[in-house]
């Protein structure tokens, strides 16, 4: 858990870094991240394993029991692809709308981030690159966490 806290702190710090790096073009994705994730094939593998891990997670797994795994994998892969600078279009729902009625708290959010870290480890994605993706996801907590 300590390692996770450190990772998440780094992710939040990375948010600052990402902003600094993209000062000239605020919406530009971090250079090289799409390639570091293994392009679309690597991202598809990551999303696949990530969702499988989410489904069997003791704390947040039950929240996903009504979800069609294939559709969630596709949306997550599109989202990670777009965020990392890949040639994709995100066709899923808005983060605020889709999570609005799920009563998600900070612990749930952190649990999901931890699962994603494990999935990225399993894909052999470098720690520094993991933190760049996490830094892009971290600000979404404002739309996703509805129970404070
Ligand atoms: C950084 C954090 C998160 C990100 C980036 C994220 C991203 C997404 C994306 C892209 C979708 C698909 C939307 C669509 O296809 O229209 C989704 C759906 C979903 N998310 Fe999240 N999510 C996050 C956190 C969470 C957390 C913490 C939970 C619950 C513990 C959660 C539960 C769900 C569920 C159950 C769905 C399926 C909704 C449905 O298909 O009806 N998410 N999320």
UniProtKB/TrEMBL annotation:
Signal peptide: 1-20
Gene Ontology terms for molecular function: heme binding; metal ion binding; oxygen binding
Pfam families: Bac_globin
Binding site for heme: 99
Keywords: Heme, Iron, Metal-binding, Signal, Transport
SUPFAM superfamilies in the cross-refs: Globin-like
The protein's name in its UniProt record: Group 1 truncated hemoglobin
Organism of origin: Simplicispira suum
């Amino acid at each position: 858990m300590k390692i996770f806290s450190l990772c998440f702190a780094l992710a939040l710090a990375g948010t600052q870094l990402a902003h600094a790096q993209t000062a000239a073009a605020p919406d530009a994705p971090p250079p090289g991240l799409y390639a570091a994730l293994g392009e679309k094939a690597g991202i598809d593998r990551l999303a696949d394993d990530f969702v499988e891990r989410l489904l069997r997670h003791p704390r947040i797994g039950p929240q996903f029991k009504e979800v069609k795994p294939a559709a969630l994998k596709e949306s997550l892969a599109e989202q990670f692809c777009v965020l990392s600078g890949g040639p994709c279009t995100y066709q899923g729902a808005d983060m605020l709308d889709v999570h609005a009625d799920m009563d998600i708290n900070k612990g749930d959010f952190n649990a999901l981030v931890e699962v994603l870290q494990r999935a990225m480890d399993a894909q052999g994605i470098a720690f520094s690159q993991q933190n760049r993706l996490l830094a892009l996801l971290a600000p979404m907590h404002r739309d996703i966490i509805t129970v404070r």
